[in-house]
Amino acid sequence: MEAFLTYRGRAALLDWSDVNTDLIIPARYLKRIERTGYGPLLFADKRYVPGGAPDPDHPESHGELASDFPLNASANQDATILIVGRNFGCGSSREHAVWAVAQAGYRAVIAPGKDDGFADIFEGNALNNGLLPIELPEADWETIATAVRTGPTEITIDLLRKRVTLHGNSDIEFAFDVPEGNRERILKGLDAIAETLLNDHAITRYEQSAPVWAGLSV
Fold first, then answer.
1. Is residue 111 a contact partner of residue 133, using CB atoms and an 8 Å limit?
2. Of 21, 29, 180, 211, which residue is most buried, by most CB within 10 angstroms?
């Protein structure tokens, strides 16, 4: 995982509510055994013209982009912060959905509504994979969404201070929260396994001193 301290990027808006994981990454792509190559598969059934979605075994090969899909707009091509509607990532608990969002180049996802912005499992998967999910009060989210609707908009996310800054004629700052344990891991670029391995020496010492069991006789 890449450490996330302070990040500035262009925002893209997909203000659809109840976007489920099957829309984020269609089920036919779950047969892939790799953990990479999911970026082109993000929103595959909406992102491309009919019949143009990638083959599961060749995600890099696909048809033309659909002109009516919001994220395909030219202004959104370099976006790295995704603004989404309420209850994003609902449905089945596929970790591939987070992989697809992150591998499409997004570092953070911002949704409206405390405890309502993301489905719980999607939010947990995002935090475990270094994709920062941010829930803002509805009014704060709408201020950002309105700015993005009017033209190219940049946002800075400061995870150290837990602040989102909307850049414009005058910058506007919003506070957000994230579970402290997850925050510390993301700040350091550690997943749960890497965090455990910080204690590798202690684990090794314990294993070397642990009694060897000969087994039970019957």
1. yes
2. 21
Q: Hey, where are the domains in the chain? A: 6-192
What global pTM score does this model have? 0.88
Strand ranges of the sheet holding 81-84, from the earlier edge strand across to the other edge: 132-136, 108-112, 81-84, 6-14, 154-158, 163-166, 172-175
Report the C-alpha gap between 85 and 66 in whole angstroms: 21
CA distances (Å), origin 30, targets 34, 104, 105, 128, 129: 10, 17, 20, 19, 17
CATH superfamily, domain 6-192, is Aconitase, domain 4 (3.20.19.10)
Mean pLDDT of 148-176: 96
pLDDT tens readout for residues 116-161: 999 999 999 999 999 999 999 999 999 999 999 999 999 999 999 9
Report whether 131 contacts 123 (CB < 8 A): no
133 within 8 A of 109, measured Cβ to Cβ: yes
